[in-house]
Structures
1.
Amino acid sequence: MSSNPVRPGSGEPDTRSPFRFLLWLAARQRGRILGVAALTSLAITGLIFPPFFVAHAVDDGLVPRDWTALTWWSAGVVALGLANAAIIVAQQRALTFAKIDATYRTVALTTRHIARLGAALPRKVSSGEVANVGGADVAAIGESMGVAGPGIGSVAALIVVGVLLFTISPVLGAVVFVGTPLIVLAVGPLLGRVQRRETGYRERQGELTARSGDIVAGLRVLRGVGGEKRFAAAYRTDSAHLLRDGYRVGAVTSWVKSFEAGLPGLFLAVVVWLAARLTADGTLTVGQMVAVYGYTAMLMLPMNWILGSVLMGIRGIVAARRVTAILDLRPDLTDTGETVPGPVGEADLHDPDTGLTVEAGAFTVVAATDPAEARALADRLGRHTDSDATFGGVRLDLMPLAEVRQRILVAEDGAYLFGGPLRHVLGGDGEDVTAALHTAVAEDIVAALPEGADTELGNQARTLSGGQRQRLRLARAVHADPEVLVLVEPTSAVDSHTEAAIAARLRTARSGRTTVVVSTSPLFLDRADRAILLADGKVAASGGHHDLLTESPAYRALTDRSIGEAR
C-alpha cells in the first residue's frame, strides 16, 4: 500500500495497489481497450459462425442436392473468412498499440520518478532492482494489457456459443454454461502458486542483478585484495538458487499451460460425445452435429485466451507490485511550505556544523582527516541533506530545491555516466564542450575513440579506464558551469602529472567563480585561494597552503601522507 496514495483522475498513477495501477494504465486508453474487446468478440464470433453456415450447407444443400442453396451457404463461409481476417488484423494492431502504450507510459513514469528521487534513489533501492523493473517488469506490464480486451471478448464469445448450442440442444448449452466456469476454477489453485513463486523469483533476481553490478564495478578492487574468487563462488551459489527458483516457477507454469491445452480438449470430447449420442438417437441432424462440432472446436480458442489472460494478469500484478514500490518512494528532500528566494548574485556559503565559510568567487580546497566528514560537508553545501547551511545568509533548506540544484552542483567521483554519444554524455556540443575537455585534460580520450565525440559509450562507460571516466565526469561538471561547483575527490584515479595539469586548468577555468574542491592532494591545495583543514568535523586551520605547512603539524602530516599514497 502506498504511504502517500494518489487517487486516479489526478493525472498521477494510482499506486494504492498493483491491481489499481494496472486499472489506471488501462483507463488511460479505455477506448482502445474497449475496441480490442469488441474486435476480439467479433473475431471469435466470426470463427464460430462458419459451422452454422456449414450445417445449413449440409442440411439445406448437400443432403437434398440443392446446388443453389449449397453455393450460397458456401459463399457465406468464404465471406465470413475474409471479413474475419480483416477483423483479426485490426484486433492485433489495436492490441499491440495497447501494450506499447502501457509499456512506455510505465517507462516514462518510473524514469521521471527516479529523476525526482535523485541522490536518494541508491539509498532506497538497489541498482539491480531498478534494472529489473526497467526491463522484465515493464515488459510484463505491457503484456498484461492483453488481458482486458481478449478476456472480455472471449467471455462474450463463450456466451454466444452457449446460446447457439442451447438453440440446438438445451443439454449441450447447459454443458457449456456450467463446464466453462468449472475449467477456470480447476486451474485456480495453480494460479495462486504461480503468483507466489513468481514474486519470490523476481525478488531474488533483482538482488542477484544488483550484486552482479557491484562485483563488476568493484572488480579491480576485488582483484587487488584477492577477493575475486570468493565473490565469484558466492555469486555462483546464489545463481544456482535462482535457477532452482526458476525451475519451480516453470514447473507450476507448465501445469497451468497443460491444463490450458488439455482441459478444453477434454471438454470438447465430452460435448462431441453427447452430440454424437443425440445424433444417433435422431435428436440432432447430421448438419447440426457438424455445427456442434464446429462450435465446440472454436471454444478452444476463447477458453485458451481466458486461461492465458489470467496467467498474463498474474505476471502483470507481480510486475506492477515492483513498479509501484518504486513509485511510492519519496525524495529525502522536498520543498515544504513557504520557500525563500536565494541571494541575488554570487554569495558566501556557510556550514555551521564545521564552521566553514566558502567565500564567493574563491577557489577553496578542503582537506579532511576523515573522508566521510568531507563527503558529509559536500552534501550539506549542496543540500543533498537538510542542515543549517546558508547561502548568502539564506538557509538552503528554505530555498526552492530547484533553485539550489540550478546554482550549486555537487559532483562526486562515483557520479553516474549515462550511455550515448560522448558529446551527449558531456551535455552538449561546441566550443564550451571542447573547453571543458581541455580543463579536465580529457582531449586524449576523445582522440583515441574511433568516432571521436560521436562515439557511443555504454552506461557508466565501462570500456574506459577508471581515470578516463573520472576525467569525463569532471569535464561534464565543468561544462555545466554552475554558480557554485563542489568537487569531491575529482582526481583520485589519475596520475600526478595529469592531476597537476587538471589543478592548474581548473583554477584558471573557474577564475572568479565559487569552487570548492574536497581533496588532500598538495597539487590542488597549492592552487587554492584558501586551504582548509577539516579535523574531527570542524575547521581546524585555514589559510595559504605554504603557510599551513609551516603553522599546522596536522595539516603537514595529512599532506605528507597524501604524497606518500600518491607514490
2.
Amino acid sequence: MASSDTEDISGAPEIIATRQQTRFHLIEDKRSSDVTIEQLTLSIRAAGGAGKAGSKTAKTGKSKASSSAAKTRDILVDTDLRLKAGVHYGLLGRNGSGKSTLLRALAAKVIPGLSLATRIVLLQQTATEDGSDTSAVAEPRTAKTVLQYILEGDEARNHILEELKILSRTDPGDGEELGQLRAYRRLLYTRLQRQLAEAQKNAALRSGARGSQARKELIVFEKKVEEARNRAENIEEPIESKECQDELAEASLLMDELQAELDERRLGDLEARARKVLSALGFTDQTMQKRFNELSGGWQMRCMLASTLLQDADIMILDEPTNFLDLLGIIWLQKYLVDLQTESSKTVIVVSHDRDFIDHVCQEIIMIKDQSLVYFEGNLTAYEEDLQAKRVNLTRLKEAQDKQIAHVEKTIINNIRAGKKNGDENKLRQAVSRQKKLEDRMGMQTNAKGGRFKLSRDMAGFHSSKRAAIEIPPEESAVSITIPVAPDLRFPGALVSLDHIWFSYTPRGAAVLQDISLSIHMGSRIGIVGLNGSGKSTLVKLVTEVASPTRGTVTRHPRLKLGYYSQLAVEELRAAGMADPSMTALSTLAAEAAGEMDEADMRGFLASFHLAGNTASHVPVAKLSGGQLVRLALACILWKHPQLLVLDEVTTHLDFYTVQALGRALRAFNGAILLVSHDRFFVKSVIEGNVELLGIDEDDEDELDDVEQTKAEMKRSLYLMKKGKLTLLQNGVRDFEQSLESKVDKLLAA
C-alpha cells in the first residue's frame, strides 16, 4: 500500500513524498545513520495548490491531490533511497533536477519510513530572508553574537535548558510548592505534546491493519494529552496529598537529573570547539563578537556552516558548503570531513559545484538522473572514468554487432532469394534459422553482473524480448553554453595595462594594492587566486573602472568592450527582482540592450543560456534559481560581444555540469579572460588549459589539435594575490594548494 507525507511551507512549494509499504511495515523510532527507503516517489506542488496529499473532499471522498495533478511535478519516481552509516555521499544532478528538494524532504523527515528519532541537520545554500539559520535544528537567533549563535545551536543542550526553564517558572500568586507542582505538570504536558506530534506522524505513515490500530491508539493518546493539560492548569488536589507530594519529589529529582546532564555538556568545551571551527573559517576574535545580523551574507553562511558542523547529528547535509569560502577554508573543510570519516559514524551528504572538493570528500556518488537515484561506489572522477569506459566498450560492441547483423541480414535475403528461385527447402530453413538467431541472440551479451548472458537465468518467465538492446549511455554533460565571438580591434595593443599601481581606500590608509603591473592582451588567460581580503576584488575594480588607482596608471584600448561579472551579480539581480515582481529575464536583457536587439534576437540569445520560452518571459526574476540568475547575468554582459571578460567567482550557484560547459565555452572564446576564483577545477581548466578536465574526448583528434593550437596562441598566467602583491605561480594552482595545506594541518592540530 502507498504511504505518503507532505511538507507545506507557506509561500513555498509543497513537498509530497510517497512510498510502497506493506501493512506489516514498522518504523523504528530510534536514532540511526542508516536509511533504506524503497520505491520512493517525491513530488513538489506549487504554492497555493490543493491541500495535503491524501486529504479527501467531503462530497466525493477523492483525494485533492488528483485535482491538482497539473500543478505537481515529479522529482523522483519509484526509486530507492539508500544511505549507509559513516559514508560520505556526493549528491549530483543538473540545476533543477531536485537535489535541494530531496535534501529538504530528508531534513523535514517527510519521507515515509524515515525514523523520526534520527537527528538530521541541513545547511542550505542561502540564509532565509531574515538572515536566520535554515537548518532543521536551529532557531532564529540573529540578534546574538557569532559565538552565541553557535553555542545556542546545540539542540540537545537547548532542549535541556528549555525543560529547566519550564520547571523553574511559576505563576504569580502560587505558593512555592503549588508553583513547583504546576511547573512539573506543565513539563509533563509539554513532553506529551512532543510525543503526540510524533504519534500523529507515525499513524499517518502506517497502513493497513497496523495503520488502523495506530490511529485508534492516537485517539486514546490525544485524550491523555488533554487530561495532562487540564491537570497542569487546574490543580484540584490538596497540596498535602500523597499524590502531590510524590510529584513534588519527582520534580526535584528531575531538576537534579537535568542539571547534571547540562553539566556534562560543558559550555566551555563547546565554546572551545566553536572558536576553533570559526577561526579556521576566517573569523577573528573581534568578528566572533559581532552580531549575526550585522554580518554580510557570505559571513552569515560561514557562521551557519560552523553551527552545522558542531551539531550532534546522525545525518549531516551540506548544500554548497564551499560557497563564500576561500581556498584555505575549502581545504580546511575538506580535511575536516575526511578526518570525520574515521572518527564518526555520521552519514554526510554533500552537494557542491567544486569538483576537487567532491573528489576529496565523497566516498560514493548519488546521481539524480531521469527521476531516479543512481549509485556509484567511488568519487566523481572514478564515476566519470567508469561511465566513459562503459560508453567506449558499448560503442565498440554495438558497432561490431551492427556489422554482424548487417552480414546475417544479407545472407538471409540471399538464402530466401536462392531458395525460392531453385525451390531449395534447405536454403529457406537456413533463412528461418538465421532470422531466429537474429531475434534471440542479438543485444547485450553480458548480464547486469558482468557475466555471460543466459536466457533461462537472466530473463526467466514471460518477457516480450529475449535480450536488451545495447544502449550507449548519453553524455552526462549535455549542457552547452555559447559565448559570442569578440570583434577584432582595428589596431593592436593591450586591452588593459596596469603600470606600477598602488591603491588605498583613504589618503593615509594602508595600501591595499602595492606596485602591481599587469597587461592583458587579446587571447590572454589570466587567473588570480588568494585568500579573502588579499585585494583580488580591489584589483578587479581597477580593471573595470569601478575605482581609480592612488598611484600609477591604468590604460585601456580605446575600442575595448569589457564584460564584468561581479561576485554579487546574483544577489543584485535577486534584490532587483524582489523590488519589481514584474521583472523577467527578457525585460532585464531588454533594459541592458536598450533597443539594440529585437525580441526575437533576445529570446534566441537567452535560449543559448538555457533561459527559453516562458522561463525567459513569464517567470519573475525573483523566482529564478541561483544557476538561472548566473546565466542571466552572463547574458546581460555577453550580448555586446566584449573583448575582455572579467569573471569574479562566476561558478557559485552553478552545478558541475554547467561549470564544465562554461569552461569549454571559455576555452573557445577568442577574447581575453581575467578570472578570480576559488574553484580549483575551473582555474585549472580555463587558465591552465587542462584538456582532461574539460571533458574532451581523447578520440576527437580535431578538437585536441584545436586545443593545442589555442594553448600555443594564448598567454596563460596564474597569479597569487597576497597582502596586496601579485606573484606568478610557476606550477599553477598546485603551488597555492601546497602552501595552504601546511596551514590547514596546523589549524586541525591546534
3.
Amino acid sequence: MILLEHRLAAAVKHRTEGRGENALAIYQEILDISPANREALKGLGEVLLELGRIEDSVRIATQAVALLPSDLEALTLLAVAARASGNAAGEVLALDQAADIDPRHPATACMRAEKVLAAGDMAGSERILVNALRRHPEDAKLLSALSRTYMAAGLTADALELSLKAVKIDPRSSAHRVQLGSQLAAVGYHVAALEQLEQASLIDPANLLPMILMAEAHAALGQLTEGLRIAKRAIGLHPEQLAAWRIHARIRIQQGEVTEALAELADAARRHKDRVEALIAVGDAYRQAGQHAQSIRLLEPLKEQHSAVDLSHRQAILAITRESRLSLGMIEETSSLMQEIGIGGLQPGGAPAGPQDDARPGAGLSADWAQLAALPTLIGQHMSMLEALPLLRFRVTSDPSEPLSLRGPTAFAELAALLPGTTFRSVEGDHPIPGVDGFPLPAILALPTKVRGPIETGPYVVAPEDRRPVWRESLAHLPRPWLALSWNASRPGLILDDLLPLFSDFTGSLISVIWDESRHQLAQAPHIIDAGVHFESLGDLAAVLAEVDALVGPDGVALHLAGAMHRRSAVLVQPNAPWYWCERDGRALWYRSVSVLKTGAIGHWAQRCGELKTGLIEFLADLPGDRDDRPVKAVQTDRALPTPLEEAL
C-alpha cells in the first residue's frame, strides 16, 4: 500500500504543476483512509479554493481549524476562504485568532497588512509587515507584501527594490515576477517588465495575469500584433475572464477597429456573471474609444448605488467617469462627483476628513476647506507630468504672500523651478499622508470652485530669463516662421516620419525640441535644427518655446509646457485623446493658446496624419513669415545650433 506521505507528495506535485483536479482526487483518497489528516484537509481546502469551489473550501478549512485551533496555516486558509466567500466577519475572526498565536507569522501578517491597507491605513500595513520581517527578513512573501504597500503609497523606488529582492530569494515564484513586472510597467519600463512577465508565464503557463500584462506591455511598446496574439491566447484559455476580453478590445481600439472591438466586448460582458464588473469593462472601453457620453451613460446608474458596490469597483467607476466627464469639459460635474464619492483624503459629502461643518457640495466655504487648500501640494509617484501640469494652474499664485509648497518625485524639481513662487521638496524616502502632510494634486478638482479657482488663468509657467537671450540670438538669422516640433519616442505614438509629410511645403525653420533618446529620429531629417542636443534642463525647453513662433506636435511635455506658458501651439491628437485635450471651438479648454487638430478616427498615425494637413495649413498661415521667403531646406544647418548658443554653453 502506498504510504500517506507519498500520496501527499504526489498531490503537492500535481498542484504545483497546475493539475488541480488530480490533486483533489488524491487528497480525497487520503481523507477516505485518514479523515483527520490535517495536511490533506489543508491541501484539499487550498485546491478547492483554487478551483473556485469557495463554500466547500470554507467547510474544509473550518474542519482543519477544529482539529487543531493553533494551526496557523489552517487559520490563514480559513481567512482566505472566508474573504472569497464575502464573509468579512469570518475573515477577521480567523486573522485575529492567528495574530493571537503569532502576530509575525508571514502568511497571517501578509493578510492582516492587506486588510489594513484596504482600509486606507498604509502606516498600519507597513508596521505589521516590518515587524514580521524583523523575525523573517528573507521571507519573499513578506517582502512582496511590503512592496505592494509602498507602491500604493507612491514609493516606487522602495517598492521595486523589495520586489527585486523577493524575486532573487524565490526566482521560481510566478507571483513575485508578475508583481515586479507590473510595477516596472507602471513606471514605464515596459521592456524590463516583459522580461519578468515572460519568465512568470514560463513558470505558470496557464496563469491569466502575466498574459494580460504581457499583452499590455507589447501594446505600450507599439507591438500591437504581438499584444493581440497574446490577448487571443488568454481568451482561448480563459474565455470566461473579462480581463482577457478587455485587453483584446483595448488593442483593437488602438488599431482603429473600434466598432468591432466594442461589439465583441459587449457580447462577452453580457455573458459575465458580475453585472457591475461587466458594465465597468464596457464603460471603460467606450472611454478608450473616445466615446465618453456612452461611457457616462453606462456607469452613471452605478454611481447612484455606490454604497452597495465594493471599494475596488467604486474606485474604477470614479476613475472612468472622472476622465470621461473631463474629456467632455464637464468640470463642475466632475467636482461634484469627486466630492460625493470621496477622493484623496476627502470624505463623501465634500469635506476633508474631520468635522464637516458646512462643506457640503454647493454650500459656502468652511474653515476645513480653507485649511485643506493651504496644505502643501502632493504629487504621487504614479502621476505623470502630463496629468500634473494642467492641474497645477490651480495651485500657482502671483501673490508672493501665498507661495506654493510642492512635494513630489525628484523628477518634478525642474518643473517646480519654472512655477513662480514655488518651493519644492522631494518625497523620496518620505511617507507623506494625503490630507495630513499635503493635499493630493489629483483631488484638486474636488474642491469647491471658490477654493479651487477658475480654469481660465494667465501663464503660470515662466521661462528662465537668463536663458532666453541665448536662444533669441541663436534663432535670429534663421528664416521665419520659427516652428518648434516634437514627436513621440515610439509607436503607437506619432513619430517624426509621420510628421514630415505635413511640412513638405513649409517655408521657415523647423526646430526640434526633443531632448531624449527619440532624437535619433532626426537622422533622416538633416534639415531640422536639433535644439534639444543642447538642453540641460526643462528650463531650456521653456526658453526655446518662449522665443519660437509656435510649436506643433502630439501629446507630450513640450505641448503642455507651451500651453501653460500661453505660447501659440497646435497639438495633434486622435478622438481618444486624454481629458486635458478637450477642445472648445478648436482650442484646448485647459490651454487656450493651443489649437487642437484631431483626426477623424482612431488608427495608425502613419495612415491618419494626412487628415490633419488642412488644419495645419490654416494654423501655419497666421504665423509671421520671412521677408525673402527662403525655404528651410535651403538653409545649411547640419542640425547644429548657431554660434551664440554654442558659445554660451
